[in-house]
Specification:
single chain; alpha/beta; Aspartate Aminotransferase, domain 2; globular; 7-stranded mixed beta sheet; Aspartate Aminotransferase, domain 1; 4-stranded antiparallel beta sheet; 408 residues; 2 domains; 14 helices; binds pyridoxal-5'-phosphate
């Protein structure tokens, strides 16, 4: 039988929900369950020193790092030795990009997509400019919000070094056909760098099935602390040579991790993956098995709630939802006739509903929609802790929105 999500039980795991707000701001950063906060607090209270010493407090740091690596590896179907940890997805992508780009030569090409968060665009574009590499753009179909896979037939060729794309847009929800696009990229010998930051809390991820050479993640999007990660094959990482200090280990993945690490936050990363794995209530099997069951239950639960929300908003004459992707996470962006997105967000806030407004860091996408100068859009997304009652409140609040005169 398919596992189901018991949302009442799940909500009990989140002390932050006691603030009484309707949190549909998850795509910008999810709430943290008690277990994650407790794990971080516990690590802060223990003697934890730097790694590499002969004493217990140093060994404890080592344990926290290897625990976080194993957890992240389980989350995406990688191996612990291929998990690079860092301050944020943006930070790890910047440094990984610098290491990858060392092999680029003038005349090479890369492909980025206009669907992506800027963290999976700008590092590549900036390095391409530095190294005389051409940037080719995968475009979004503005009607549907899709990133058509067929365009990659023309975008990639023997000069392509890298294809960077998202597994799911945190702005409008679209899930591109990553395996198909990876297949095209690999056929010409290009590497594939997939941003799974937003996909991770909504679906079961499998790095091999995605065809991703690199999977980038942001733990704060999946109920973890502010930590970023990139997962790759350790053998691939061994071919990359980031800038590093002399005393830093040369082994993989440590060679990518400059400076002292936030060990206490790494305790929270492990706890966050355990939280996701425990969502279905299943207690047997490996953590990866439990993740499969839990993420299936999450996807079914969120999918049902989201289609209600999505259909209700689309039926409102004063609301314009951006795109209409077929495969999507429970995330959408919308505009309200006669109101700036900031006004809408402020009005919803008055009703106790938290949403983001602006460009969701997807500046290329919002430029393509032609709405950046106009305040972007309101972005809302469901998480496994949202309820039908909350979705009803959101629908009623958006339905009641009426333009107000903008104060001068
Ligand atoms: C899809 C996506 N990618 C990347 C990022 C950047 O993550 P971080 O804040 O860890 O750098 C975000 C953050 O909102 C995101 O939504």
């Amino acid at each position: 039988m398919e596992a189901r999500l018991d949302v009442a039980r799940v909500r009990g795991l989140f002390p932050a929900l006691a603030d009484g707000y309707v949190h549909v701001d998850g795509p910008g950063g999810a709430l943290l369950p008690e277990d994650v906060a407790r794990a971080v607090g516990h690590a802060l209270r223990m003697p934890v020193a730097e790694r590499g010493g002969v004493f217990a407090a140093s060994a404890r740091a080592e344990g926290l790092v290897s625990g976080a690596r194993s957890a992240v590896a389980d989350l995406v179907g990688g191996v612990a030795g291929g998990v690079v940890l860092g301050a944020s997805m943006t930070a790890v992508t910047y440094s990984m990009a610098r290491a990858i780009a060392k092999a680029w030569r003038p005349g090479d090409e890369i492909v980025v997509s206009r669907l992506d968060h800027d963290a999976n665009i700008r590092p590549w574009v900036q390095l391409a400019e530095e190294r005389g590499v051409a940037v080719r753009w995968a475009e979004v179909d503005i009607e549907t919000g899709e990133l058509p896979a067929w365009q990659y037939d023309d975008l990639v060729n023997r000069r392509t070094r890298l294809v960077a794309l998202t597994a799911a847009s945190s702005a409008i929800g679209t899930c591109p056909e990553v395996p198909e696009i990876s297949h095209r990229a690999h056929a010409v010998g290009a590497m594939v760098y997939v941003d799974a930051s937003h996909a991770a809390p909504h679906m079961y991820l499998d790095r091999t099935a995605l065809g991703a050479d690199f999977v980038a993640l942001s733990a704060s999007k999946w109920c973890g602390p502010h930590v970023g990660a990139v997962v790759a094959d350790p053998q691939l990482l061994a071919h990359l040579h980031p800038d590093k200090l002399r005393s830093m280990p040369d082994k993989v993945p440590e060679r990518f991790e400059a400076g002292a690490a936030p060990y206490e936050l790494y305790a929270g990363v492990s706890a966050a993956v355990d939280h996701l794995a425990g969502l279905s209530g299943e207690t047997t099997g490996s953590r990866r098995d439990r993740l499969r069951a839990s993420m299936g239950a999450v996807a079914r639960y969120e999918g049902e709630l989201f289609s209600w929300l999505d259909q209700a908003l689309r039926a409102m004459r004063h609301v314009q939802v951006l795109g209409r992707p077929e495969r999507t996470t429970p995330t959408l962006a919308f505009r309200v006739e006669g109101m700036r997105p900031r006004q809408v967000a402020a009005e919803l806030n008055r009703q106790g509903i938290c949403v983001w407004d602006g460009d969701a860091y997807a500046r290329e996408l919002f430029d393509a929609f032609g709405i950046t100068e106009d305040g972007g859009a309101v972005r809302l997304g469901l998480m496994h802790y949202n309820t039908p009652d909350e979705v009803g409140q959101v629908i009623d609040a958006v339905a009641a929105l009426r333009p107000r005169p903008v104060p001068r």
